[in-house]
Amino acid sequence: RKNTKRVPSFRKLLRTSKIKLDNKLKNKQYKQQSAAKKYRKEQKKLRQAVRDAVCRKPFPLEEYKKKTVAEKREKEEEEDALPLDMMDEDDLKLMQDLAQKASFITRDLSSNEPVHIKKRKNESVIDKYEKMPRRMQTEPEKELIHLLPIKDKGGIIPQTMEKPVLNVTQDEEEDTEEMEIAEDANEEPLPVLTPEEMAAQRRRKLQERKIHIAALAAAILSDPENNIKKLKELRSMLMEQDPNVAVIVRKLVMVSLMEIFKDIAPSYKIRPLTDAEKATKVKKETQKLREFEEGLVSQYKFYLENLEQTIKDWKQRKLKKSNVISLKAYKGLAEIAVKCLCELLVALPHFNFHNNIIVLIVPLMNDTSKMISELCFEAVKKLFKQDKLGFASLGVVKVISGLVKGRNYNVRPEVLKVFLHLRIKEVELKKDSEDIAPKKKFMTYKEKRKNLSRMQRKWKKAEEKLERELLEAEASESKEKKLKLHTETLNIVFLTYFRILKKTQKSPLLPAVLEGLAKFAHLINVEFFDDLLIVLHSLIASGGITYRETLHCILSAFHILSGQGDVLNIDPMKFYTHLYKTLFSLHAGGTNDDLGIVLQCLDVMLAKRRKQVSQQRALAFIKRLSTLSLHVLPNSSIGILATNRVLMHTFPKMDLLLDNESQGSGVYLPELEEPEHCNAQNTALWELHLLQRHYHPIVRKFAAHLIVGAPAEGSGALSPDLSRRPATELFETYNMKGMTFNPPVESVTPRRKVLF
Length: 756
Known about the structure:
The chain starts with 9 loop residues before the first helix and ends in a 23-residue tail after the last helix. α20 runs antiparallel to α21. The chain is built from 31 helices and 2 strands. Among the domains are: about 160 residues; about 160 residues, no CATH class. The chain has about 750 residues and is mostly helical. A two-stranded antiparallel sheet has the order 1-2.
């Protein structure tokens, strides 16, 4: 039958929305499915009735078969064996006639064949099966419908018919094709835009989105409590679907939300309400504040989840199903997301989900992208510098320690160098833990009665009450809690350092570990001093570390001995010897930067331990440092001469090196590696005469100052800006990394020649 379904008119299509058409299609499919289900149930009942009827039909007997020659012989033998003489002749003849007919035994009651039909010769079951018509397996089986059975004289005859195939899908496809053809015919073709028109259209769309974002942000900032729901509307723009402006709009929304949360977030952490608090009746203002806080926390949480998902999609190189944003654009989105997280990490350390931000930021410090890792480094450094209490620093240190251990110490050295920016100057030590931050004790009643008059007791009581209230209302934490947090933080830092020293001594993390030990060594517990010094000396003696790492080992050892290590009876002569013999490894090339660490080592080894340093050792170091100042860059020469000036003021009789006459027996041995036995008292600082003619003006000033005995006053004294600054600061001040000369070279105006 030809399909006479009318094509819907364009006017009707305009009135019918897409959703309505979808609903109609769904209803149609649902009706067809329910009708097919009902039909299947009826057929199932009918098949069951047919099976019951077939079970009640009499079972047909086996067909009668003629016996073979062998069977006849066996029967004849049996007949010969039977006692036939006991039967009458008439009875025997009757039985033989009935056996030849055998219609009452062999007839199939279900067949309509006549009783005396002629039997086929040598017909067997296998032959009958072979003669049956067969079907190919590839032919699809047709589903049969079982009808009501027919009963005749022979028995019950089941009736079946083939199930007609309903071509519903084909009809639907035809309908949809007709609809599409009608839509294509009625729709006007879209105009083709030129590149200039497309750019103008994109600018217009982008301007509309910017205005919308600005309006929402202004409304939220003007009245956060009443417009908290607009945060959701603004956050929904993170899912912008227009491919022309999707990337820029998402970036703008990320940054806008970050600034909004920084502005409207309270200065306290919002905790969830308990069931009892929710059940109690409160004022309208309190209820309004609760709703605002709940909405703020939920939107802040969703915003952080969106940022995290953006970073994960970029890391996993995963595209969304919509394909609105390309894979290359995901990197830009991820960078903006990391910037927002870093800003929130520094700006809101007190607010909710700060630990979650830490868990996101710290692994990105080890990222392969240099820009993202540097962003995270700077954010963590800022957090350490501004964290006065130490709670946020403790959270970051815990995550870094877990990251280093989880990655099997396969992280970038910069991850551990972040520890150097921790604001930890004192910790809670065992020996004086009772003396740190003693609690203020108030006078007892008996003490007041004994020592104070009645009026004094009255005033004292009022004063103590006021002090208690001030202590309760004080926002800043006590010194005791701060020391406790700093102690726990430093314990985790040292645990990370000691693990690396123990397990991976050839790791690239070793310089960062030694640098960290050099900074915090004075805070290590006394129990670890002996073992740590043995490890540091074994690292130096092994020769498997660089010169800079060796300097860090020496600096760490003397920081340990300068603090609580004063009580230990340890002779660090081997560290003095190693530094003395390796000083000439420095030069004006790549090792010039290492001289800053050498200046720190000299300050700790000689100036701060002047009581443990002999005169011979001090003379040997001054002489070797003066020789070194001849072949290093100007900033290094200034630092060395400033150190020599401090040593000449610290140790007496250093003016021996300014005299040509020898003191005592022996000859100076500059090649000897032992500073105690090189006879430095028998030499002079002739290098100062060469440095007086140096091209750098500051070097010339220091050389002239030292050659007259480094006086504190008089004509040979230095200016205060040079004399009061330490050697390390002078080394950094006159550094020439920026390819600029400090102080700047004065321009000389050429003289005009006068012609006569």
